[in-house]
Amino acid sequence: MLLGISRMAVSKHVAGLVAAGFSVEAVRGVGYRLLDEPDAPVPAAVELLLTEGPFELHGGGDTGSTNDDARLLARKGAAEFTVCMASSQRTGRGRLGRTWASGPGGVYLSVVLRPAVAPADLPSLSLAMALAVSRALRGRGADTRVKWPNDVYVDTGKVAGISLEMSAEVDRVAYVVVGIGVNVSRHPDTHAGAGCLSDVVTAVPRRAEVAASVLDELHRAYRIWSSEGFEPFESEFRDAHLLDGEQVTVRDAFGTVLATGTVSGVDAHGRLMLEGEGNTALVSSGEVTLRD
Ligand code: BTN
Predict the structure, then answer these.
(1) How far is CA 208 from CA 106, 146, 187, in A?
(2) For 81, left (φ over 0), alpha (ψ -120 to 50), or beta?
(3) What is the per-residue pLDDT for 1?
(4) Is residue 85 a contact partner of residue 58, using CB atoms and an 8 Å limit?
């Protein structure tokens, strides 16, 4: 193939691929032959698979937390769609201060977004992001469901978690870091009760493929959410929702009970609707537990 760049530039790109874990053979008089790709969400591999977005990709190996990596870049002014990825994390964190098991069987990525909204408008973004991840995993053959506000499940348990961390003034968001963890294959670190993509698909995708699908769907969903809000997602969320008809309690981040009742769905703003005795409660954010 004619690349229109110097031999020196080609060999620099090849050295970059080798450093990222690709196996490349030099063929005398011909050029280079790609022998093997790493099973890791490295930028060079993910970039080739993306069909959407002006993403700027970083990382791909082991890190502390991709959320911290992305926040650091966001604070320095990184553009929207800057992404930090990892194939394992040493200090992966979940929502509400929990840890997120981040062994080498998963995909871990964080995306910097800069939505032009107030903090109060953000909760429905996390539902749209959950649907994006759910769509991406469906595209890989998994029969996924979502649990309000932003967990993605397969038959065997929670397969993906999403967190939103933001920096904001009272009436204006500066940036949001959307952190996404997907359990692709089981690993000694994977919680026994967690779901894994490999439990439910016959052909387990490479982790770069999972990362690219997630980013593509995230970009599509974010574009729609930015211009039209949550309404276009409402019926899909209802159809994929695990909790309908369940008796639940919703608590805030400090454990205070916000509402109890039977889930009747989500409204056009992404609020969870709970039927109580003679009234409907609407909850914008919180942690849901099933009542026994
Ligand atoms: C949850 O509690 O369900 C949310 C889990 C979010 C985990 C992801 S993995 C990539 C990013 N980096 C982190 O440290 N956390 C998020």
Answers:
(1) 10, 23, 18
(2) left
(3) 54
(4) yes
What is the number of the ligand 1 atom nearest to the C-alpha of 160?
A: 3
pLDDT, tens digit (0-9, with 9 covering 90-100), for 81-109 = 999 999 999 999 999 889 999 998 899 99
CA of 49 to the centre of ligand 1 (A): 23
- The whole-model pTM stands at 0.91
- The whole-angstrom separation of Cα 142 and Cα 136 is 9
Answer positive or negative: Cα dihedral of 65, 71, 74, 76: negative
Our answer on whether the CB atom of 38 is closer than 6 Å to any ligand 1 atom is: no
Q: Is the previous residue joined to 115 through a cis bond, with omega within 30 degrees of 0? A: no
Q: Of 209, 211, 181, 208, which is closest to residue 196 (Cα–Cα)? A: 181
Cross-strand bridge partners of residue 151: 147, 161
* Cα–chain center distance at 125: 12
Contact 59 CB / ligand 1 (< 6 Å) = no
